[in-house]
Amino acid sequence: MRRVLAFEAASGLLLIAAAAVALIWANSSAAGSYGALWHANLGLRVGSFVFERSLEWFVNDVLMAVFFFVVGIEIRKEVHDGQLSDLRRAALPLVGALGGMAAPALIYLALAGSPETHHGWGIPMATDIAFALGVLVLLGKRIPASLRVLLLAVAVIDDLGAILVIAIFYSSGIAVSGLMWAALGLLAIMTLRALGVRSIPVYIAPGVLVWAGVYAAGVHPTIAGVLVGLLTPVVAWPGVEQESPADFIEHALKPWVSYAIMPIFALANAGVNLSGLSLSGGGAKVSVAVVVALLLGKPLGIVLSSALALWGKLAVLPNGLSTRHLLVLGIAAGIGFTMSLFIAQLAFEDPTLLGAAKLGVLVASALAMVIGLLAGRVLLPVAKTE
What we know:
By secondary structure, this protein is mostly helical. The protein has a single domain, classed as Na+/H+ antiporter like fold (Up-down Bundle), CATH 1.20.1530.10. The protein has 14 helices and two strands, in the order H-H-E-E-H-H-H-H-H-H-H-H-H-H-H-H. The chain has helices spanning 2-26, 31-38, 55-81, 87-112, 129-138, 145-169, 176-194, 204-217, 222-230, 245-269, 282-311, 323-333, 337-347, 351-379, and strands spanning 41-46, 49-54. It has a two-stranded antiparallel sheet. Helix 5 runs antiparallel to helix 6 (145-169), helix 7 (176-194) runs antiparallel to helix 8 and helix 10 (245-269) packs across helix 13 (337-347). The longest helix is centred in the last third of the chain and has 30 residues, at 282-311. The chain is globular, with a radius of gyration of 21 Å.
């Protein structure tokens, strides 16, 4: 738990710094260089074969696949022996997360449900675990360890929900040939596992094949990272005294994801040019809907759905927690940032609507952090013991 909190808290600070740099850069006299950098083409030319994409594409589709790979591993571990391994323990975070995803989506559609803006309904569904855990860390002894574990479980389910939303609703037309290549890569990984191949580099080639197949199929390629992560063994190899492949890979990649990939993503996506942003018409609807959905929808959905589950005896509240703790958790969960910015990129091609959505995410996330800290200090007493 201490290691997880240290990673996430430090990552949250770097995300804040990267987002601040992006905003300042995009609104400075050097704003042109910001757009030029992320839209610069990179790629490969071999004879008649040409593959070129923007730097922003490499960040969002390649580097973020590594981020989602780690997310897949975390989900696999939680299902195997974590908070989601037992139905009774999983009931509260499951119901809370579902309510915390449904309420923001419905609020967004109610406020910005016109044909040009309704596609952004998935933006406020997500929670940024780094920032949310950072809020709890700053509240210190007011936060029992059980609340941190509950937030982690809610965030894992939230991530899984966001992944499904991306795969189903934010992917283009499906090409069967691409799915076949992805299936071949997954089959290769499962075959290597069955044969007891322990060399991790051997799995890179089929993992890349899964990514390429998913991309060719028209599904967002970050889903490939999740699929491969879910196949990573969570039990140590028989007869060998060492940590499991899942633990080894997570420990190796987590610093790169937390301290490099996520800040780079924030730097590439948080640079909203405020002077060129139009909040008239659809833009205003999108910004307001995202802010209200994250600030109001998240705590409302989490608290109400959790209360119904507790009232119906479908779940139990961990010792030491109360409705006040759930409210603070819900407010912190309204920090969307990384995943919300990511979904915004997929939801809107119109630069005006995309900029408005990003602005809404940044404003809502900043307010949720401040309100979460204030609510925690007002509502929660300092615990006598951790």
